[in-house]
Prior knowledge:
Elements: H1 9-15, H2 30-43, E1 53-57, E2 63-65, E3 81-83, H3 101-109, E4 115-119, H4 122-130, E5 150-151, H5 161-171, E6 176-179, E7 183-188, H6 191-213, H7 222-228, H8 239-250
Parallel strand pairs: 5-6
Antiparallel strand pairs: 1-2, 1-4, 2-3, 4-7, 6-7
Helix pairs in contact: 2-6, 2-8, 3-5, 4-6
The structure holds zinc ion.
Amino acid sequence: MKKYEGLNEAMVKHIAPQPGRRALLPPLSEKAKVALMCRMLFKEGWDEHIAGHITLRLSNGNILTNPWELAWDELTASDIVTLDSEGEILDSDWNVTPALGLHIQLHQQRPDAHVVIHNHAHWSGIWANMQRVPPIYDQTAAHVSGDLPLYNEYEGRFDDVNATTAAIKALGNAKWALLANHGALVVAKDLRQAHLRAITLEWRCKRAYEVEVAGGGTPMPLEESQKVSITDDNGFPFLWEAMARRELRADPSILD
Ligand SMILES: [Zn+2]
């Protein structure tokens, strides 16, 4: 019998969805995928009332985002707003928050960042408020490796161009950042990667908080956590689809 060597890139490629295999989801428009992301992440703690924005840059340069007026757990595909690359609304009566300036600038300055997520998520918010970076204590927290910058924006909101420029500089080439006394920021190449990063960040922050409250533990060695983080590139197999199906079961009108 072949020795189990753990999850590796060849295995991820082998089991990835392919034509002819059972479909894990119905066909989804790009707007439906963004609506599903909002619903999925709301359940993962990215749920501060009507705060927060997810932006997805399309191949034509336009950007999809959630409207300002709606909470992430109520919107549907038709509520998703299309913006041009400068942030002007193209197709909706809904408003978008001026704080989207951060996303617009990030999309312009980070060609690799097709998805940007910001909200005041629960557990990452605790570490952002403590102005500390949570250690990685377990495998799920290790799904995404790399630096987790802590950015202390001091002053200025994200509708202020100087504040957004400073935040983007602090983010550098990182995948995510904690914004001191504010919230969290995740960037990614696509929705699948963004989802894994967003849920991994919350998981890591929750576990680290609980471990500390329980009296402390031993963080995973960096080398071990990096072995697990191979999932970061394409997302954990089948996870995005499973979480999307959970939302579709609960409310099929998401696709409307
Ligand atoms: Zn914010």
